[in-house]
Design brief:
Blueprint lengths: L1 H13 L10 H19 L15 H14 L23 H17 L15 H30 L5 H4 L2 H9 L2 H11 L2 H16 L3 H14 L7 H13 L4 H20 L6 H11 L14 H5 L5 H4 L2 H25 L3 H18 L9 H9 L5 H14 L1 H6 L3 H15 L2 H4 L10 H23 L9 H26 L3 H7 L5
């Protein structure tokens, strides 16, 4: 008996199984997590947004300044303009949970290096010790929230799958934890997207494990950390509402979920609930309509089509807000209808992708870094849609290339892309992934041409100077190419959501007990 078991184990690790799973699962997950942490540490040794670029620097200084403000003035005044809190100098423009996070990190920095968060005098602080402590705040946030949520998701996602699919657990976790876009933005450029995205992954995993109340609380926390988490809101709402309609007591279930959301929001917003004006003051900071419908060269619909239609010149801001709202709602509506009609776990993941892509393409004031949001559900769908995931990851990176060049992050950009390709094409995994062998000759030819064009753009951007008459020509071409791929993916993903297998549709028609 013992010999048979040993032979079976050997076969699993050397034959049908994946080499990543040759050891115990906790050990495998631990090795992946340690390697992912090491990669983040190496990337953090590079430059960051606004390094040495006075007087306003960049995102690094914005995050440090929020720590300075939250540590030194009362919570009620964090969003108020004053002599000590000049809102024109990186004023807080994220929800209260981001401010609380800044305060917690400020306590850490103040303990080890008080000068880095001193009121007013610390502006533009870039000492080596201060930068080291700032980097550690991102690393610790990533490990405590994003890593934990990713492991939770993988365990839940593969819990009821067959043995031949469970062998992909380590591969999937590696792709989530070693996603090049999130790593280079959080640990290179410098942000804390790992917190809101980690909370979102936790909410998704909670839904997959039938813990909807926990999911509502976690997603509410994500919304209260970064308002861009609203990109996922239509998917969460439609999926949960569809399940409520099939519940034994629909009204009671809606009430329970609503109380979970309301309770979380009250807890987070408590310091500002003393007056309506205080709430409005915070809300006004979260929706900066005065900045226009887009900034820089972001690869979404409005910026891309502005090559032909000068939106900002032709229409006032109120009209553009209406256009944006209408287009975004139109984009998310098909996905929402499908989930209300037939909610399913797989359909929910597609809905997250479709909803976030619609927001990225059509919503007001989108930044290059917002592509991280649709990239998250694409990563969660990596086993189901490997080609879509690979394609979106590559063009998400490409769309941010000009931004990362300004931050002097070309080396980590290339290195992370190579690492991603190596992990994605693990031989024992790629042979069994779906849709890889189904591409037609024409489709492969088009893909090769697009990739060659993107490679050529990389070379041109870093080696040549654009014409003086068109100083942003290269950025515009990168934007056009990336946007075309995002639109293609959005069409495909919406169609795929509506064409889910009939067995999944039939399963979701059952009453939820």
């Amino acid at each position: 008996m013992q010999t048979k078991k040993s032979k079976k184990s050997t076969k699993d690790s050397n034959g049908d199984g994946c080499w990543l799973l040759s050891g115990s699962m906790p050990l495998t997950f631990g090795c992946i997590a340690v390697f992912a942490l090491l990669v983040r540490v190496i990337v953090s040794l590079n430059s960051y947004s606004g390094a040495g670029d006075a007087p306003k620097y960049g995102d690094y200084e914005a995050q440090r300044h929020w720590m300075e403000i939250t540590l030194n003035i009362p919570a009620k005044k964090w969003y108020q303009n004053s002599t000590v809190n000049d809102l024109t100098y990186w004023g807080l423009d994220y929800p209260p949970l981001t401010a609380y996070q800044g305060y917690a990190h400020a306590l850490f920095l103040h303990y080890f290096h008080p000068d880095s968060v001193a009121l007013i005098t610390s502006r533009g602080h870039e000492s080596p010790k201060g930068k080291l402590l700032m980097r550690w705040t991102v690393l610790s946030s990533d490990v405590l929230i994003f890593f934990a949520a990713a492991i939770y998701f993988v365990i839940v996602y593969y819990a009821n799958r067959g043995k031949n699919k469970q062998q992909h657990m380590a591969w999937h976790l590696a792709l989530i934890l070693l996603g090049p876009c999130l790593i280079i933005i959080d640990h290179g450029h410098f942000q804390y997207n790992c917190i809101s995205l980690g909370l979102t992954i936790g909410a998704v995993a909670a839904i997959l494990s039938k813990n909807e109340l926990v999911a509502c609380a976690l997603f509410s926390l994500a919304l209260n950390h970064k308002q861009m988490s609203a990109y996922f809101a239509p998917a969460f709402f439609s999926h949960l509402f569809g399940k409520c309609l099939r519940h034994r007591n629909p009204l009671s279930r809606v009430l329970q979920l609503g109380l979970s959301v309301l309770g979380t929001f009250i807890l987070i917003w408590w310091p500002y609930l003393y007056s309506v004006d205080a709430v409005k003051e915070v809300l006004s900071r979260l929706a900066p309509f005065e900045r226009g419908i887009y900034e820089d060269y972001v690869a979404n619909f409005w910026c891309t089509t502005s090559v032909l239609i000068k939106w900002k010149r032709l229409f006032p801001t109120p009209s553009l807000r209406l256009f944006s709202l209408s287009a975004t709602l139109f984009g998310v509506l098909p996905s929402m209808v499908q989930q209300i009609k037939a909610p399913s776990d797989l359909g929910f993941l597609y809905a997250l992708l479709n909803s976030s892509l619609s927001f990225y393409l059509f919503s007001f004031q989108v930044h290059e870094k917002s592509i991280l949001l649709p990239l998250l559900p694409a990563t969660l769908l990596a086993l189901e849609e490997p080609l879509l995931f690979r394609w979106l990851t590559y063009f998400a990176l490409l769309s941010m290339f000009p931004l990362l060049c300004r931050d002097r992050l070309i080396l980590p950009y290339v290195t992370l892309l190579i690492l991603f390709v190596l992990i994605y094409y693990i031989p024992s995994i790629i042979s069994t992934k779906k849709h890889e062998s189904s591409s037609t000759g024409l489709k492969k030819l088009v893909m090769i041409l697009v990739l060659l064009c993107s490679f050529f753009l990389h070379i041109v951007y870093v080696t040549l100077q654009p014409p003086q008459k068109y100083p942003f020509l290269f950025e515009a071409v990168i934007m056009l190419l990336s946007c075309s791929q995002f639109v293609t993916i959005a069409f495909y993903s919406n169609l795929k959501q509506w064409m889910l297998e009939s067995s999944i549709w039939m399963e979701t028609e059952k009453k939820v007990q």
